[in-house]
Amino acid sequence: MTAPRIHTSHRTVSASLLLTTLGQSLDAIKREDGATWADLDAVLGKSDRAAAYAEGSADMGVVSFLRGCKQWDGRLANAVLALIGMRLVPVPTVRATREDILSLLGRQSKEAADLTGVLCMALSNGQVDAAEARQGRIEAEQLLAVVLAMIAEFELIEREGQ
Predict the structure, then answer these.
(1) Which of 30, 49, 111, 114 has the fewest CB atoms in 10 Å of its CB?
(2) From which domain of life does this come (predicted)?
(3) How far apart (Å, rounded) are the C-alpha atoms in residues 31 and 41?
(4) pLDDT tens-digit profile of 65-107?
(5) Helical H runs in 34-129?
(6) 7-41 pLDDT tens trace
(7) Domain ranges (residues) in the chain
C-alpha cells in the first residue's frame, strides 16, 4: 500500500474550488460593506456579473479581478490566493533607503520570531486557549504582512539601483 503524496508547493486545486472561494470572498465583501450587486459590478467594471461571480458560476476576468484587488486588497484575493500558497501584500508608497529597510526588516523579523517563540511555547505547554492562539496568529500575520511589504520595497530599491 502506498501512502498518498502531499506536495503543498505543487498542490492541485480545482477550478470550481477557486471560483467558489473567490465568490465567497465577494459575497462577504458585499455583506460587510452593506453594498449591492450593482455597487460591486461598478468596482469590477461589469454589469450584472458580480452575483454570478459570488455564486461561483462565472469565471472572473483578470481586469475585473485586479480592479477588485485594488479596491478591497486582500479581502477579495487572499482566500483564493492561499489555495495556491500565495497572498496579496500592498507595496508601501513611502520611499525608504536600502539601509532603512534592512534596519526595520531586522527589527520586525526579531519581533516576529519572538512572538512565534512565545506562542509556540505557550501552545506546547497548554497555556493558551483557542482564542489566544487565534489572536497570536492574527498578530503574526500582521507582522508577516509588514515584513513582506518591506521585502517588496527592498526589491524595488535594488531594481531601481541597477
Answers:
(1) 114
(2) Bacteria
(3) 14
(4) 999 999 998 899 999 988 888 888 876 666 667 777 778 777 7
(5) 37-44, 50-55, 62-72, 74-82, 98-124
(6) 445 567 888 899 999 999 999 999 999 999 999 99
(7) 12-82, 98-161
32 DSSP 8-state letter:
H
Place of cell 485586479: 66
Q: What would the pLDDT profile of 101-151 be if each residue is shown by its tens digit? A: 778 777 777 777 777 777 777 778 887 777 777 777 777 777 777 778 777
CB-based contacts of 23, cutoff 8 Å, min separation 6? 53, 54, 55, 56
Length of the chain: 162
Burial of 28 (0-12, 13-18, 19+ CB in 10 A): middle
The number of beta carbons lying within 10 Å of the beta carbon of residue 68 is 24
The interaxial angle of helices 15-33 and 62-72, nearest 10 deg, is 40
